[in-house]
Amino acid sequence: MSDAERRHVLYADGAARGNPGPAGAGAILLDDRGNVVAELTKFLGHATNNVAEYNGLILGLEEALRRGIRDIDVRLDSLLVVEQMCGRWKIKHPRLQPLARHAGELLAKFPRHEIRHVPREENTRADALSNRAIDASDPDAPTGVVAGPGGGAQGRLAGDSPPAKSG
C-alpha cells in the first residue's frame, strides 16, 4: 500500500481575536504512524472564529488532496463545524454557507473519510498554528508547508525567517 493510500489524520483549527477580529487558520497533517506530513498556516484578516474554523479545515483538505491522499480522518474541536459538515445542524449564517459547501466538496473527493469532534486538548498543535498565523498578521506571507515525508523542511511558516543559504 502506498503512503497516499494509508489513513492520514488531519487536525484543523481556526482562531479570531475579538470574534470578529484578526483571524488565522491552521492545520497539521499526520501519516498513519503519527509523523508530521505538513503544518499549514493562513492569515485571514478580519473574520469570525467560525469562518476561521472552516478555513482551517479547507486549508488542510486542500493540502491532503494536493498530496494525493485518499483516506483521511479529520479531527476538529469545533462542534459547530463537525455537526454542520455531517448535516446534523443547519448552516444559518450566510458567510458560513459557501465555506461549508466548499469543504464538503473537498471532503467528497476522498474515497474514504471521517470527520469527528475532539476535545480542545487534542487539537493544541493546530490551535497553535492558527494563532501563529494571526501573530504573523501578514496576508501576503506564504502559507507554510514546513514538513514533508521524513520530517525534512520544505518551506516555512508565516513569520519564520527564511532558511539560511548554503554556500
Verbal overview:
The chain is 31% helix and 26% strand. It is α/β, with parallel strands linked by helices. The chain has a single domain, classed as Ribonuclease H-like superfamily/Ribonuclease H (Nucleotidyltransferase, domain 5). The chain has a five-stranded mixed beta sheet with strand order 3-2-1-4-5. Strand 1 and strand 2 form a beta hairpin. The longest helix has 18 residues, at 49-66. It starts with 6 loop residues before the first strand and ends in a 31-residue tail after the last helix. The model is unreliable at 149-167 (pLDDT under 50).
In short:
With 167 residues, the chain is an alpha/beta fold. It has helices at 49-66, 79-85, 96-108, 124-136; strands spanning 7-16, 21-30, 36-47, 71-76, 112-117.
CATH superfamily: Ribonuclease H-like superfamily/Ribonuclease H
Low-confidence stretches: 149-167
| Arithmetic mean of pLDDT | 87
The number of distinct helices, counting runs of at least 4 residues, comes to: 4
* Percentage of residues in DSSP E strands: 25-35%
Distance between the termini: 39 Å
State the secondary-structure class. alpha/beta
CATH class: Alpha Beta
Name the features:
single chain, 167 residues, alpha/beta, Nucleotidyltransferase, domain 5, five-stranded mixed sheet, 31% helix, 26% strand
How are the elements arranged and paired?
Layout: E1 7-16, E2 21-30, E3 36-47, H1 49-66, E4 71-76, H2 79-85, H3 96-108, E5 112-117, H4 124-136
